[in-house]
Specification:
Helices cover about 75% and strands about 0% of the residues. It has about 290 residues and is mainly alpha-helical. The radius of gyration is 19 Å and the shape is globular.
Length: about 290
């Protein structure tokens, strides 16, 4: 593939990362340039089908578009060529980092689940979805960073899960209003006597607070597990992973500080908070960002 065309493909992935994943994008600035570009390619690959599923073009068939993307992914990984810029960059990244098709296809399987499934009875049921939607992204990142230790891979799995569970807690109202989805396990809602009807009305009562406290505590356990894998990451790539982990986990603090009302306000970290945390990590001795 011509150098200019490949560069444009990577730039498209970078643009998607900057537009849709602000915390992730900020954290990528602290990767060495070659790894940063690969991470952008990974983000572009996963964002494209996510948009198909969550925001399909009017009048389109999301299932057909997703099936086409899956076929195009297999072709791109096999030939290194694609009409889609995000797949051009992803295929090049996959070749350079010896990434197999297993994790990308598992991710696309999870995206397909979003087209047909809107409820999960148990937490174990939910994890069949989050493995593909999030944990395999952590595993693909390990491939980019050269992490192969089995225990570290388990920790990467847990970091992806923790970040996805954080999304679920933050986006309860949005997921219901815009897509009719509930990612809180139904068994958890029943345990705390909180109903779908109450969720649909955005009720924040004692039962909902107790439910959220339970979900947040479980999510923090996965962050704590993930922390044990940080030392396995090469030193010049450790800081951006720590930064993304810390900033994302802080969303849980924001939910608590907002009285658990995730229906009327979106929990987020500010640009100032992101910069302050990056500075704190730099002062602590982790390597700083490098320019392109």
């Amino acid at each position: 593939m011509p150098t200019a065309e490949l560069a444009a493909a990577y730039e498209e992935s970078r643009r998607l990362n900057a537009k849709h994943g602000k915390t992730y994008y900020f954290s990528t600035l602290f990767f060495p340039p070659d790894i940063r570009r690969s991470v952008h390619a990974l983000y572009g690959f996963v964002r494209y089908p996510d948009e198909i599923v969550d925001n399909p073009p009017p009048g389109s068939d999301p299932a057909r578009l997703l099936a086409d993307y899956r076929e195009a992914t297999l072709i791109a990984l096999s030939t290194g060529q694609s009409d889609l810029p995000v797949l051009c960059a992803f295929a090049d990244m996959a070749r350079r980092h010896d990434l197999s098709a297993d994790c990308p296809l598992a991710f696309l399987d999870a995206m397909a689940m979003d087209l047909t499934r809107t409820r999960y009875q148990t937490f174990d049921d939910l994890k069949t979805y989050t493995y593909g939607s999030a944990s395999v992204v952590g595993l693909m990142l390990c491939a980019l960073l050269g992490v192969t230790d089995p225990d570290a891979l388990v920790r990467a799995h847990d970091l992806g899960l923790a970040m996805q569970l954080t999304n679920f807690c933050r986006d309860i109202g949005e997921d219901w209003r815009e897509r009719g989805r509930i990612y809180l396990p139904l068994e958890d809602m029943a345990r705390f006597d909180y109903t779908e009807e109450q969720l649909a009305c955005g009720v924040v009562n004692d039962n909902f607070v107790a439910l959220m406290q339970f979900e947040i505590a479980r999510t923090r356990e996965y962050y704590a597990s993930a922390d044990l894998g940080i030392p396995a990451i090469r030193s010049d790539c450790r800081r951006p992973v720590q930064l993304a982990r810390t900033l994302y986990a802080r969303i849980l603090d924001k939910i608590e500080a907002g009285g658990y009302d995730v229906f009327r306000r979106r929990a987020r970290t500010s640009g100032l908070e992101k910069a302050a945390e990056a500075l704190r990590l730099q002062i602590s001795g982790e390597p700083g960002p490098r320019r392109r």
